[in-house]
Design goal:
Number of helices: 23
Distance between the termini: 135 Å
Oligomer: single chain
Number of strands: 0
CATH architecture of the domain at 294-389: Up-down Bundle
Largest sheet: none
Helix content: 55-70%
Length: about 425
């Protein structure tokens, strides 16, 4: 009886299982039907959106394009009644992005540190003002950040990463045809790539200035002539302070000259050299000053002072190098030499005050330290010579002792030899 009951239960369980397997699985709605279809098509947007910052944070295509991403019926999902807008027009993009990026409460749930005033900044920019006037050829959010492959600025693959930002700006600003209506030069990118700023950036210093450092990012605009000094002064603080009390400050302001860029240029900023200050043909001073005027004399004096200290440092370095190669300890001399080199750096900064006595005072301090370092090298070489003389004398004495012992042994052994004979 028990066996029969067990068999009946087994048959019923098997029948229930077969019935469950025969039924079709319950219908599930796709999380993002748009992406599901576009992934099958293998188009670029679907490929890029996989790594997009919005996609990785769970946002769907509908966040920007509207519609209902939960239905697999194309007509129903792309129904304008459900907010579908398709491809937004260029003029709509800033406001479209701002629906989220200007909502502080919404953005806080994703990145509390991200600013939410980008739209306000953009409206003050050269791009935003022209867009408001109906010019759709200017840059909008997607031109700089890309469309479906947007990444954080800290990501090396991002189009606004410091190493890639200049190239992103150059997409428009190095295009002669695109910039022709605006009558703006298109050599900024080429000049920047030849500048000390780009060389520093390419060398791995991501804090080096890029386009956005000087022009701003969302509020991008060319700095006015009167503000160039302040823009440069955000990094070059001491140079700005020195220039503010220099004799060039008022005349240049009155003539409408851009202070820093008059001597250093703007995009093609070269690495500074002492020869740029002085009266040689390569000096920037001779662009304005002529032989015999006060500026010419001051420039020549400053260059002479810098050359004196630089030459003294080279001499001290040469002596210390010789002593070090010979095996002498010149660590203290190296420290003194480093302090002297800092004086040279300060003197080069002091140039921006265009005050020859002030530069000379710094140079004199550096010359004293360079002299001490030079003397330390000479002392080390003198000690080396003394050690060599002492070693030579010691070797002579040792040789004399050895020879004397040898002769003594020979002398002591001679009587024995005679007695044996």
């Amino acid at each position: 009886m028990r066996t029969l009951r067990f068999s009946l239960l087994a048959v019923l369980a098997l029948a229930a299982t077969l019935a469950a397997l025969s039924q079709s699985p319950p219908e599930t709605k796709p999380a993002d039907a748009c992406l599901a279809c576009h992934s099958i098509l293998e188009d670029e947007p679907s490929k890029q959106f996989v790594d997009d910052i919005h996609g990785t944070r769970g946002l769907t295509c509908a966040a920007c394009h509207g519609g209902d991403p939960t239905v697999d019926d194309m007509a129903a999902g792309m129904n304008p009644a459900k907010g579908y807008i398709g491809i937004p027009k260029r003029a709509q993009i800033p406001q479209l992005c701002a629906r989220c990026h200007s909502d502080a409460a919404f953005m806080r749930t994703y990145n509390p540190s991200l600013r939410t005033d980008q739209l306000q900044q953009y409206r003050t920019s050269a791009h935003g003002r022209r867009l408001a006037q109906g010019d759709t050829g200017v840059a909008v959010c997607t031109d700089c950040h890309s469309v479906h492959g947007i990444r954080p600025a800290s990501n090396p693959l991002s189009s606004v990463h410091p190493l890639r930002l200049p190239e992103t700006c150059a997409t428009c600003h190095a295009n002669p045809e695109h910039m022709k209506p605006y009558k703006i030069p298109t050599d900024q990118f080429a000049d920047y790539r030849a500048s000390v700023h780009f060389q520093t950036l390419e060398g791995g210093d991501l804090s080096a200035p890029t386009c956005a450092t000087c022009h701003g990012n969302h509020g991008a605009a060319p700095p006015g002539v009167a503000s160039v000094e302040r823009v440069c002064g955000t990094c070059h603080v001491f140079q700005e302070q020195l220039f503010d009390r220099s004799p060039h400050k008022e005349p240049w302001a009155g003539l409408g000259f851009a202070s820093c860029s008059t001597c250093h240029s703007n995009h093609r900023i070269e690495r500074t050299r002492d020869v740029l200050v002085g009266t040689s043909p390569d000096a920037v001073c001779v662009r304005c000053h002529v032989e015999g005027d006060a500026g010419w004399t001051t420039a020549g004096n400053i260059n002479s002072q810098l050359s004196r200290l630089d030459t003294s440092l080279q001499d001290a370095t040469g002596v210390l190098d010789r002593a070090e190669r010979a095996g002498m300890d010149v660590s203290e001399g190296r420290i003194t030499l480093g302090n002297a080199h800092e004086k040279l750096i300060k003197a080069r900064v002091d140039v921006h005050a265009f005050n020859a006595p002030e530069v000379q005072a710094t140079v004199e301090g550096g010359l004293g330290l360079a002299g001490q370092a030079h003397q330390a090298g000479l002392d080390a070489l003198a000690e080396l010579a003394f050690r060599r003389k002492g070693l030579a004398l010691s070797l002579i004495i040792i040789a004399w002792v050895v020879l004397s012992l040898w002769l003594l042994i020979r002398h002591l052994e001679r009587p024995r030899q005679i007695s044996r004979q």
